[in-house]
Amino acid sequence: MTIAYVPLDSVAVAMEANAVAAQLAEAGATVIRNGSRGLAWLEPLIEVQDEKDRVAYGPVTPETVAELISDGVLHHQLIRHPLYIGSIENHDFLRSQHRLVFDRVGYDSPVDFPDPTDTLNALAMSPDALIDMIETSGLRGRGGAGFPAHIKWRTVRGTEAPAKYLVCNADEGDSGTFADRLLLEGDPFRLIEGMVIAGYATGAKLGIVYLRSEYPVAKTIFLQALEIARARNLIGRNVLGSDFDFDLELFVGAGAYICGEETSLLESLEGRRGQIRVKPPVPAISGLLSMPTLVHNVISFASVPAIVRLGGDAYRDLGVAPSSGTMSFQLAGNVKRGGLIEVPFGITLREMVEGYGQGTLSGRPFKTLQIGGPLGAYLSHQELDTPLTYEAMTDIGAGIGHGGLVIFDDTVDLAEQARYAFEFCELESCGKCTPCRIGSVRGKETMEQIIGGRATDREFNMIDDLCEVMDRTSLCQMGGMTPIPVRSAMERFQQDFRHRTKP
Fold first, then answer.
1. pTM for this model (two decimals)
2. What number does CATH give the domain 117-314?
3. CA 84, CA 47: separation in Å to the nearest integer?
């Protein structure tokens, strides 16, 4: 019997993977819809397996799959076909990765129930021992801030309250990021396992996953996974035979970027408009419904099972301390080979752009990359040898954020990108504080004067002043980080701005 694996993730489906799967099924193959391996430029990537071999082809279209079928793909007769890849695990894009979070993604159906050994081992430990392990591992939040996870865990556990909660921020809104989506579409049980373990360690009985509305495939798969997890006792009463009760719910947001900020997300969960809360108190003390709440993003929670499996010391030794463990980087934009790369911290930007990415898709010279989403820094060619660690990025005025890298060739206009940063803040601001609400509008207007060649030194000074005010006085990082792309573009690519200045 021949088995054909066809990804069901959003990118593959957008590239007509459903039609490819239907044709393979009509030809007699048993079709399994798996998650994406993360090689986006090869989607739809199909894998055909007989009793021993699993051979990949890609990118496959409804037109080429008909040719593959007629030429004998279901009988493994196409070794020299142009779409032939061979064993996908031996592909250079995957072979050099170190996958701990994404290790199961792409092998089977995302709703196949996994071996729950990691969770069982965690439940056999004491909650305090688990938190000690998280501290030893050096795990930091993978959502952008890089805050030490154990501090949040210990605060939630140590705060007396009638109820405690976990909230998973799956409102993945940064440009060039798709790690959360790939995991939720390819291995939702990894997130469920991580949240069960975190709930046990902190004393939380209920977890809520806040998913962005633009991820309908992830929603469908995660809801199926929740039903299976409940039926298999991974969630519910007496989890896996223990005396620990824990349940999970899914909440779908309404598409507001600001709800990626943890306190705005909590406001949304409570049925109010997504606006930031003034801190303190922090959510770990007073979060959802004023109860202690552990808020992490998808990859933060999903990193926990690997820490239990490897041990805190082994996980800490990956990467470049204090940037410990692996990070799920995502390559997007004008890049030849876009996709997801999970590797230990310490890889350089050059290895990402020129190694994994193979340069620009256009073939034109590389000019810049933006790291950390729409409010991240623009970096130049001179900084490509910088290692991807929290500390090294901070040293050059940048941040890793959620791990997204968007590549641009030499046709990009950084003045236009700086204008867009202000416009993005204008559109997505919750409006609660004046520096963000008004500063973004004035910044966009001033940048349009610069782009239109109507600026003098006065306009450049105004941009500097606006950036300083937004940086220092905004209530949250929406306004506070908007100056980062603006300043980095103006400092590193002055030629895109100054040639437009009035004499």
1. 0.94
2. 3.40.50.11540
3. 10
CATH architecture of the domain covering 318-409: Roll (3.10)
Q: Where do runs of H (alpha helix) occur along 388-433?
A: 390-395, 414-428
Encode the chain (503 residues) as per-residue pLDDT tens digits.
789 999 999 999 999 999 999 999 999 999 999 999 999 999 999 999 877 778 999 999 999 999 899 888 888 766 778 999 989 999 999 999 999 999 999 999 999 999 999 999 999 999 999 999 999 999 999 987 789 999 999 999 999 999 999 999 999 988 889 999 999 999 999 999 999 999 999 999 999 999 999 999 999 999 999 999 999 999 999 999 999 999 999 999 988 888 888 999 999 999 999 888 988 899 999 999 999 999 999 999 999 999 999 999 999 999 998 999 999 999 999 999 999 999 999 999 999 999 999 999 999 999 999 999 899 999 999 999 999 999 999 999 999 999 999 999 999 999 999 999 999 888 888 888 898 899 899 999 999 998 988 888 888 899 999 999 999 999 888 888 999 999 999 999 999 987 766 55
Please say whether the beta carbons of 217 and 178 come within 8 A: no
DSSP 288: G
**Tokens of residue 415, six digits:** 């003045």
Are 24 and 31 in contact by the 8 Å Cβ rule? The answer is yes
CATH code of 3-95, in short, is 3.40.30.10
CA geometry: angle at 23 spanning 17 and 27, to 5°?
Answer: 145
* Number of CB atoms found within 10 A of residue 460's CB: 16
How big is the CA angle at 502 (ends 501 and 503), to the nearest 5 degrees?
115
